[in-house]
C-alpha cells in the first residue's frame, strides 16, 4: 500500500466516523425513549391526569345558586376563576393568607433547623468509636416512628401538666391556639425528621476518600478548615437533595399539626389542612383550587431551589462528562509508510 492510498483511506474513514457516531447517538436516544416510555406513561396517568382533573374541578362549584335569569340551579356549575378569586380577594382570602404564611413559616424554620442538626448527626455517626452502631440506631428511631404516633407522643409531652412544662417550670399552653402551638409543631417536626437529613449526609460522607483528609492534615489544615474546604463541598449534592425533599414534604404538612394541635386552629393551619377542610364540607371546587395553588407553589419552590442553589445533580453530571470529553487529547492523523 502506498502513502497516497493510505492517506485517502484514512480520510474516507475519518469522514465516515462522524456519521457513524451520529447514528449511534440517535439509536441510543431511540432506545432510551423506548425504555422510558412505560415509566412516562405511568407518570402521566398517576400525576398528569390528577393534576388536570383537579384543575378542571377548581373551575366548578357545587351547590345551589342563581343563574343569569334568577332561577335556582342545583349541582355543579361552571364558575371559571371564581374559586381562585374568592381565595385571593374574596371571603376566604384571610384564611388562605393565614395558611400560606403558616406553611412558609414551618418550611423555613424546620428545614433550617433540620439541616443544622442533621449535619451534626451525620458527623457524629461518621466517627469511629465504641458503640457507634447503638448511636446510629438511636438517632434513626424518631424518623422510623409514624407521624401520627409522634404527634400523640408530643401532645402528651406538651400537655399543661406534661414533661415540657415540668422541665421549664412554667405553665405554657402548648396545644392551644397561639404562637406556642407553632413552636410545638416545629419542635416535633425537627425531632422526627432531622435523622432523615443526617442519614443522607452520612451516605455522602462515606463516599469521601480518607486520603483527602490525610493530605489536608499534612498540609496543616485544621478540623474547621477540613469541614469547610473538604467535607461540605463534597457532601453538597447529597445535602441539597435531602433539603429539597424536606422542603417539598413540609410544604404539604398535614398530619403532625392535625394530631398535635388539632384542625381549624389558625396558628397551625396549613394549605393542605384548609384544602382538606373545604373537601370535607363538600366544597370540592374550592378544595381543588387550594390544591392547585399549593401545587404551583411547590413547583415554583422546587424550580427556584434547583436553579439558584445548584441542586441539578443530573445537569452537573452531564456538564462534568462534557468537560471530561473536551479535555481528552485528540489523536492526530498518522501517515502510513509503504
Topology of helices and strands:
Layout: H1 3-57, E1 60-62, E2 65-66, E3 72-73, E4 76-78, H2 82-88, H3 93-126, H4 132-144, H5 147-157, H6 163-168, H7 179-205, H8 210-218, H9 223-234, H10 236-250, H11 255-260, H12 271-280, H13 284-309, H14 313-327
Antiparallel strand pairs: 1-4, 2-3
Helix pairs in contact: 1-13, 3-7, 3-10, 4-7, 7-10, 10-13, 12-13
Question: Your description of this structure?
Answer:
The chain has 338 residues and is an all-alpha fold. A hairpin with a 5-residue loop joins strand 2 (65-66) and strand 3 (72-73). The relative contact order is 0.12. 73% of the residues lie in helices and 3% in strands. Helix 3 (93-126) runs antiparallel to helix 10. Residues 9-15 and 330-338 have low confidence and may be disordered.
In short:
The protein has 338 residues and is mainly α. It has helices at residues 3-57, 82-88, 93-126, 132-144, 147-157, 163-168, 179-205, 210-218, 223-234, 236-250, 255-260, 271-280, 284-309, 313-327, and strands at 60-62, 65-66, 72-73, 76-78.
Oligomer: single chain
Q: Report how far apart the termini are.
A: 6 Å
Binned strand content: under 5%
Tally of DSSP β-strands: 4
Q: What's the alpha carbon Rg, rounded to whole Å? A: 29 Å
Mean pLDDT: 81
Q: Assign the structural class, choosing from mainly alpha, mainly beta, alpha/beta, alpha+beta, or little secondary structure.
A: mainly alpha
In spatial order, strands of the major sheet run 1-4
Instruction: Identify low-pLDDT runs.
Output: 9-15, 330-338
Written as H for each helix and E for each strand, in order along the chain, the element string is HEEEEHHHHHHHHHHHHH
Helix count from the secondary structure assignment: 14
**Fraction of residues in helices?**
over 70%
Sheet with the most strands, sense and barrel status: 2 strands, antiparallel
